[in-house]
Amino acid sequence: MVAGLGNRDNIVSSLTRFILELVAWIAGPWAVFAVYGWSGAAIALVGLVALPAVFSTRGDKKHVIIPTPGPIRLLIEFFLFAVAGYAAWQVWPIEAAWAVWGAIGVGVLAGMPRSIWLLRGAPEREGNGVAVLADAPRSTRLMHGASERSENDPESYLIEGEIHLLKCTDGEDTLPILVVVSDTDQGLDGVVSLTSPNRQAVVLAIAEPDEWHDLANEGGDALEQRVSTLMGEEFIYPRLSRVERTSSAQGSSFQKYLKNRPSPLVHYRCSSCPSGEAVAETVVTVEEFRAAGGDVLLSDRRLELA
Q: Residues 222, 146: one domain?
């Protein structure tokens, strides 16, 4: 069973997948026994049980023995589906065989979101915002609900930030976000940046404790609605898609690594095309952004830009 039923999986997909694995483990060796005897059936059973148990994809299983790319894991599962369907047809009554094939159809359809996720290489974002935030730069974690949100807000927030211009990988749209560049996290929990989908504008807001908690778990709708109503125009929260880890050159010393280590590449979900991702193409100062016609707004009197 999966580690958690997030937005990529559901109980129908998970349960059907488990049942079909059981069918493959029972009917598969049964069919092999008819041709190769007990020794063949034993080898088939060990192989069919070991495949899904040993080769797992991170983020899909709680316990991973051999980390496996998402497409390979999906291929293993489809192989087990094929074994279940073929073996049931060979050794079971026709009614049972048709039931197995029906379960295969249900499993494939119900598991489409998870299958797409695996085909995409199992990016860590889906289902667990906390998992992807663990690999994100500190400035990204700071504004996406990664720290504990205090119930008692400070009297004022002094924000030092820069503007990242995100460009969709599947289009030409550019969206600005404000990223904190302060050297300390102290006193900044709860501060978030939202962006306008209609013009070059960002707004800084202070998330309520429940809104802040939701940000690390793929929430944000309540925050968007409240800030949009307050500002009198639509603003959206830039949701993370995945974090691409970057590696340093091999052979470098640990001191050089600490000095020159590259920052992870943060991918955001594109707000205008469901299948696209957006990455920071340009980084400018707040002053440069405003000079180019951009708007940086504050939704709370306690917020102040450095």
A: yes
- Residue with more model confidence, 235 or 254: 235
Give the residue-averaged pLDDT of 9-16.
Answer: 87
Q: At residue 3, does pLDDT exceed 60?
A: no
- Domains held by the chain: number: 2
What backbone torsions phi and psi does residue 119 show, to the nearest 5 degrees?
Answer: -65, -30
User: Are residues 147 and 61 both part of a single domain?
Assistant: no
Structure-token pair, residue 162: 């820069």
Distance CA 7, CA 134 (A): 19
Q: Confidence band (pLDDT; 50, 70, 90) for 189?
A: low
* Distance, C-alpha 43 to centroid of its chain: 37
Between the two ends of the chain, the Cα-to-Cα distance in Å is: 49
Residue 31, in any domain of the structure: yes
Residue 34 has pLDDT above 80, yes or no: yes
For residue 260, what are the contacts with CB-CB under 8 A and spacing of at least 6?
248, 252
Q: What's the one-letter identity of residue 284? A: V
Residue 61 CB: number of other CB atoms within 10 A?
18
For residue range 109-160, list pLDDT tens digits in order. 999 988 887 887 765 444 333 333 334 444 444 444 444 444 455 567 777 7
Q: Quick one: tokens of 33? A: 């026994």
